[in-house]
Here is the input.
Amino acid sequence: MAKDTPNPQHLTLRFKKHKTTILLFVSPRDTIDSIKQKLLDTIKATGVSQINGDPLPSKSEDLMFGVLIDKNDPSQGWVGLEIPEVEDDAGKRGNTKNSVLNKTPLGAGLKDGSVLAFKFRGVESSGDGMDIDDGHWDVIMPSFDDEDGAQ
Here is the structure.
């Protein structure tokens, strides 16, 4: 795996699944697909074979990313970071209003320190070979409530 030379333009992204958080240093020009591969390589380099009972996928295409619905209120949940292709009235391909406009972190609106959830495609199956995406993201955010043991 090639090492990037750090520079001030690089971003540190936080990837979360269950209680696991992985910090990944990426270039703003990296594609989302290359970031998925870096994340999978990083997890595998630690010797982990599963996270919270979900086995690691063999291909980076089986990783899905999610972003917070409201960055100031994580309790509102996550929405998938996808690039849907739709046909507009003129028959040209385009992106819907709320989609990622291109395939880079900057195009996705990510900044240094952004938090992304990740999950593995194909962990749940409907039994007929089709993947089920119920919109659930297995992320546990830390809580700093007074009732959690503070004196």
